[in-house]
Amino acid sequence: MARHFVQGRLRIVFYSDVHARTEWETPTALMMAADAINAQKADLVLGGGDLITDGFDSTSEEVAPRWNTYMVMHSAIEGEHHAAIGNHDLVGALPKDGSAPADDPRLDFKQRFGLTRTYRSFDALG
Predict the structure, then answer these.
(1) 30, part of any domain
(2) CATH number at residue 107
(3) How many domains would you assign to the chain?
(4) Residue 6 forms part of a structural domain
(5) Residue 23: inside a domain, yes or no?
(6) Nearest C-alpha neighbor of 58 from the set 108, 17, 24, 119
(7) pLDDT score recorded for residue 4
(8) Digits of tens for pLDDT over the chain (126 positions)?
(9) Whole-angstrom Cα distance, residue 103 to residue 105?
(10) 14 and 51 in contact (C-beta within 8 Å)?
(11) Could you list the residue range(s) of the whole structural domain that residue 65 is in?
């Protein structure tokens, strides 16, 4: 859906702490959230991190279904949207099984969003 930017006015939706998981009808709730976000007809949508749950002490394989659940919501959001990384989005930083920490706990996030780093800037709507 095309957004029509009104000069001098920028409508922003900000959400955070989604903590996506596959249990408890969360996928359905996330789609309801995406619908509510889209209903705002924002010019820009920003996700503030903690997009998945329990990444810190989990492996990439364990969190893949959580990332998949979140990415369905993310893909359903219309218009320009960006997400930041949160501490729960770090994967394998301190594995619960006692294994060595991941070389780069940000890797899953970067791969999901096609990024080479987790910081960035952008111009929104001119």
Answers:
(1) yes
(2) 3.60.21.40
(3) 1
(4) no
(5) yes
(6) 108
(7) 56
(8) 445 555 668 899 999 999 999 999 999 999 999 999 999 999 999 999 999 999 999 999 999 999 999 999 999 999 889 999 999 999 999 988 888 999 999 999 999 999 999 998 888 766
(9) 6
(10) no
(11) 12-113
The CA distance from 67 to 71, in Å, is: 6
Quick one: tokens of 106?
């940000």
In sequence order, the 6+-apart residues with CB closer than 8 A to the CB of 63 are 52, 54, 55, 91, 108
Helices (H), 45-114: 60-76, 107-113
Residue 118 inside a domain? The answer is no
CB-based contact 14:48 (threshold 8 Å): yes
User: Which helix (H) or strand (E) covers residue 50, if one does?
Assistant: none
How many CB atoms sit inside 10 A of residue 82's CB? 13
> How far apart are the C-alpha atoms of 110 and 118, rounded to whole Å?
7
Strand order in the sheet with 44-47: 12-15, 44-47, 81-83
What per-residue confidence (pLDDT) applies to 105? 95
